[in-house]
Amino acid sequence: xxxxxYNRRRLAITGAVLIVAxxxxxxxxxxxxSDDPITELLQKDNxxxxxxxxxxxDKPDLGELNDAAIAGMLGKLxxxxxxxxxxxxxxxxxxxxxxxxxxxxTFTIIHDTITVDSPIPGxxxxxxxxxxxxxxxxxxxxxxxxxxxxxxxxxxxxxxxxKVTVGIDRFGDTTPTAYTITRDVIPIVSVMAHFMVDPTTGxxxxxxxxxxxxxxxxxxxxELRSQGMTRLILDLRGNPGGYLExxxxxxxxxxxxxxxxxYTKGRDHDFDDSLFSHPGDQYEKxxxxxxxxxxxxxxxxxxxxxxxxxxxxxxxxxxxxxKGLVQRQYxxxxxxxxxxxxxxxxxxxxxxxxxxxxxxxxxxxTTALAQSDEDEDNYSHSFDVNATDTSRPKFKTxxxxxxxxGGGITPDFLxxxxxxxxxxxKIWATGVLGEFAEEYxxxxxxxxxxxxxxxxxxxxxxxxxxxxxxxxxxxxDKKIDVNLDxxxxxxxxxxxxxxxxxxxxxxxxxxxxxxxxxxDRQYQKAYGVLDEAGRLAAAFK
Length: 541
Known about the structure:
Elements: H1 2-34, H2 37-55, H3 62-74, E1 82-84, H4 86-89, E2 99-102, E3 105-110, E4 113-119, H5 124-127, E5 135-139, E6 142-143, H6 149-156, E7 163-169, E8 177-182, E9 184-187, E10 191-196, E11 201-206, H7 213-226, E12 231-235, H8 244-255, E13 260-265, E14 273-276, E15 288-292, H9 299-309, E16 314-317, E17 325-331, E18 337-346, E19 357-358, E20 361-362, H10 369-372, H11 380-383, E21 394-396, E22 402-404, E23 413-414, H12 422-429, H13 432-451, H14 454-460, H15 465-477, H16 484-489, H17 491-507, H18 509-517, H19 521-528, H20 530-539
Helix pairs in contact: 8-9, 13-17, 17-18
């Protein structure tokens, strides 16, 4: 009996010890988990959601709150790390495949504001002069601030021929400008135009780097070569980027050898990568000039940066956008996804393409780096246009020339676009010029075609005083306060724009491009330095 009591007592003590040990072990496990910062943050999030669910004055939509929390969290990282609700994930593929009907822009919502990444070249927004960095602050007279991505698409897309008026806030403007945009079918093609500008010079415009870009480019180049092309102007202005592998294929066609085209570096070394050129391509010695501007971003910066660093081509225009962050899309269980920045792009010389940002926003003073404090029309290969700018990091090209980092690709020749007068912008934005061109072509197409072919139109068709007077009348009918002195300043440019629009409607897109190049200072500079580009190509190894 005593032994039995002793055994029971020993079991009780042992059980107590086990309970204490388990409690201590649980405390250690809980402490181990609580030392994980993610677990602590999730506990905090759960506390907030529980409080809102049980005590908030109205019944909350917890899913909507959670989406907003995720979007807000990612918005503090960088301008291109974003949350995509399920409805928008499938639509993202339309940027580079297929076609859709709408106003023709790609956009990102940055701090509740619709920000244009790029107008799709040749689309209705591009034709009205909407450009990268513009902010859409109103749609049909109502505020567009805080609209969600699916709401923006619903408002901006629509059947071909329908119209929508958007308020555009542009950096440097005091008030937003209203643009009336006629929706159209937006085809996703890469090579927007290609033709010979003289017996030996070809011109190719690449609007984006989509899945078929390299194949389209090769078809265009081979066609031009059959017409006598021995040198090339490659236009990447307004090109928002796209598929990295396509950009590398394009650059490789002109570079050859076994040279670094671009490399990436991330915090996780699994995302570090280097992409190289290969010998034996057809156009490795073709003299090349590349046009870029503030709308040239990402993949187009990789191409132009590689050409410049390796002394393969001359770059003309304005400093590029400065998007040098690599994103990877991660699907979430409910069909949504996050597009997360995982690394940075670097050009062969080691330049980071990315321009400065803070709290998920680009710094305003870097939006148009080349347009404010740099001297245009200087050749940095010879003169070091930024030699006095000690704030920008210096790098060396393959031949030892000094080039500059700090965000984007600074051209060898800086050439700014002409400034449009406020009256002209209003007339253009409200669609007056486009409507006039469309109606004039409808009424006179037979006599225009009877007069001659496309070449005849380019050389001989002109905009008369009567046409300009009609445009002014139409603008006044739309209650636009027309400043005639401002309008006359831009008369030459307006004439080119109207001729290009009409010629494109009658004879096709190539005529539109040909006429626009007549008044294009950046293109004219590019054409003027082709001989120097030839010397670079000859020396390239």
